[in-house]
Each structure stands twice: as C-alpha cells, then as structure tokens.
C-alpha cells in the first residue's frame, strides 16, 4: 500500500470535522458505560449511595489528570508521525486494552473500579491530544463549528454507551457489554491509524515520511519556558475567577449525576435501564442540538450564554426538588432528565468557548487541559460527596443544595471581565503573539 495516497486531516475540511467527531465518540464511550450504565447497574444490585458515589468519583478522577498531559504532549512527540497523532494512537490502544480485559467477564466491584480508572485515564489523555490536534490544524474560522461536531460526537458516544451498556449489563453482564465496546473502539481507531495530520508525515513508524519544519517550530523543548508562560496566564485574576465559577457549577452537576442512578432505581423503583436509556435519548437529541447551539453562543457571546444557562439550571433544578411528589411518575422524571441534559450541554459549550478565549496561543493546549482537568475534578468531587449528603439531606433537599451552589456562582460571575483579561495578556506578551483572538 502506498502511504502517500492516503488523505491528511490538513487537506480536507469535511474530513477534519468527521474525524474529530469520531474521535470524540471514542472518548464518550468510556464515560457513558462507566459513569452512567455501570453506576445504575450497581444501584440495581443494591449497592449503597456511598459506593455508587465512590465509583463515579474514582473513575471520573483521571479526567483531572489532564493537567499533566498537556505539558508532556507540548514537550514530547514522535514528530515524524505528527505532533498529536502518536498520543492519540497510544491513548486509544490503552482504551482498547482495558475494554478487552474487562470483556472476559470481570464483575468484582474493585476490579471494575480499577479498570474504569485506567480506561478513563487513557480517554482523558486522548482528549488532550485531540484538543491539541484541533488547535494545531483547525483554521480559526472553523473552530466553533468543529467544537459543535466534537461535542455532538461525544454526546453520541455517551448516549450510545449509556443505553446499549445498560441493556447489555442487564441482560448479559459486564463481559458482553465490554466486548461490544471493544469492537466499537477498534473501529474508531481506524481514524488515527489511517489519517495523517499533514501530508508528508509517516503513517506508521516503519512507513515512509518525515517530520515537517512546522512541527519543529511549534514543539517547545524548554520546560522552563512552557511552565513560565503557563503559570503567568493561569494565575491572572479573571482566569482564577472563571475556574472558581466553573468549579462550583461542575460540582453541583457531579452531585446530581450521582443522585440520578440511586434515585431512579432504589428510591423510585424504576428498572435499571430507565435512567441510562432516557439519558441516552436526551443526549442523542442534545447532540443534534449541539450543532445548532454553537453559532448561537458565538452570537450572544459565551459569557452571556453562561448567565442564561445558570438561570435556567437554577430554575429547573429547584423546580425538580419542588416536584418531588411527582417523581414516581415516569413522565415527570423523564422531563427532569431531559432538562438536566440540555442545560448541562449548553453550559459545557459556553464555558469551553469562554475558557478558549482565556488561553495564550503558545501554551494553549496545556492551559486549556488544566482548565478542563479542574472542571472534571469538580465533577468528581461532587459525586464523591453524595454519601455524606444522602445521610444528611432528603433527595429533594439535595436538588435545592445543587441549585444554591449555582446561585452563588452566578453572583461570582458578575465580577468577570474578559476585556481586562485580554489587556493583561497583552501586557504579558507585548508582541501580541499570545493574546487570544
């Protein structure tokens, strides 16, 4: 086979959009099965709220380790195969290995916990590599649309793994669920295997090709410079403020994410597939909505979109608590699940867009990875506190607590000023090369 006949991502806009969407599907699969389907399966097996919360907290924890991945990927790579593509291949190989190991039928809680941590660690590192690849390859006027395709792909992966994983776990157990997931990951892995980042690079280590001059120019080799620029941008006041606001919002989401499996199965007596299936349905519709939402957010600005999302989240989460008497009606709980999924997606797109505007270009991959890592740490922390909350509060009061957190975060967001942040970046980097557009 002539490797130069295969296409490169830099050559085709349509190919880029489809490839990034597919890679985000692969990242959504572990999330759907480990953070939705398996927790619900555990709840149906009468595991306690504390155990379900612990599982979600631990398997989501690797997403906080993205803060380590960014600087490593900015410093090291096999440039003859591209700046980010080798890391994507390595991470996807890890996901595939973990799923194949679980396909032998492991059912022990702590083995599932350990492999869940490993698979999500690989998925998180792939996320950083794919984001870095997108920053390197996508033209500026293509990023908003690409982000919508990427989030749409991720939602499709989460939804598919949630629904199919719950059904397979219920009928056949973990072995069959993870075997099917292995097949899906193997098929998606053909994307980075067959597609170069840019023409002229190697497809595989033993094939023809070379590192391009552009790759050498972009790859930073000095740790001191990487971390110096990174810390200067991260500790700007508006950067710290937005991290605080996002942390509170994601922590409230983590609490609710851990509540739903326990509430629907143990408290309300719904089937173990009810929550995963309806979450999947809401996610699939939200994935389509995601494509339409990105231009709207760009038009009204991400900051205003976050304000709107917070108000909507506060109202719907508080209303869900007030409607506790109606939770046993499937239609009411389905409506709550749908509103929760839609507001989560809206806030995710808006916050990611605003965080991108805070990044300095030379350390954008590392800086953005740290923002996303802290965001996922908040999600993990929220899930982890469900045990203590469940012992102190009723379920409807937990909804009130989640809404209360977002009320406080809305007040903090009033202090945010993007223009002040951009002015400080221009002062740090007088050449103008590292200020966001």
Summarize the structure.
The protein has 437 residues and is mainly alpha-helical.
Question: Can you tell me about this structure?
Answer:
The chain is an all-alpha fold. The chain has a single domain, classed as Growth Hormone, Chain: A (Up-down Bundle), CATH 1.20.1250. The protein contains 18 helices and no strands. Helix 1 crosses helix 11, helix 3 packs across helix 5 and helix 11 runs antiparallel to helix 17. The longest helix is centred in the first third of the chain and has 32 residues. The mean pLDDT is 85.
What are the key terms here?
single chain; 437 residues; mainly alpha; Growth Hormone, Chain: A; globular
CATH class: Mainly Alpha
Output the structural class: mainly alpha
Number of helices: 18
Question: What overall form do the CA principal axes indicate?
Answer: globular
Give the topology string: H per helix, E per strand.
HHHHHHHHHHHHHHHHHH
Please report the distance between the alpha carbons of the first and last residues: 42 Å
Q: Poorly predicted ranges (pLDDT <50, ≥5 residues)?
A: none
Percent helix, as a range, is over 70%
Assign the CATH superfamily: MFS general substrate transporter like domains
User: Could you tell me the strand content as a percent range?
Assistant: under 5%
| Rg (CA only) | 21 Å
Biggest sheet, in brief?
Answer: none
